[in-house]
Amino acid sequence: MSDYLPLFKSHTVEEHAQSHADYMPEGKFWRGKNIVDSKLRDLLRGFGASSKRQEEALSAFWDEVFINTTESFISDFERALGIPDDCFGIADTLAGRRRNCLLKMVSLYVVTEQDFIDLAAELGFTITISRPVEDAFFNYTFDFTFIDLKESRFTWIINGDNVSPTGFDYTFDFTFEDTVSAGILQCLFQKLKPANTRLQFVN
Length: 203
What we know:
about 200 residues
């Protein structure tokens, strides 16, 4: 169940039956609506049982409209968010599928450097973002080609523990293993970075 307030307060069959009875007319013919063992009251209990099932179904639906509690609609959320994609596969567990959807949704609103830092935090990484000119040194790429001063202005250095694993594929089912999470982190950052920006990940 979700942490959100339910759509409906839960009612018993008898409460629903009484609610139906309250909307019926008064008079001798309808007297049985309030008599416990009358045929009319039995009929109203049947209506009440149906109303209770509908109430429960609608309250359960409330859980389905939130990614972190959905079960029946998880495939719909994945399809709407474009999962699977280059960064996310279909996870093996419901919890992993929900997590992927939440991460993909969060990534849709990444604009500023702080947004990138917050996105990394969602994956369990504490990072900083700097530029070579800010650190007063010329960094280098993985093939040891030095970055000139002009290029360094458009380079982000992503510093954090275990953010630069090697030998991984960019498409993953979500787990909290460092190499897998770092793969998703790098994939998302490369997709979301400003067009003129180079990224360098440093452990």
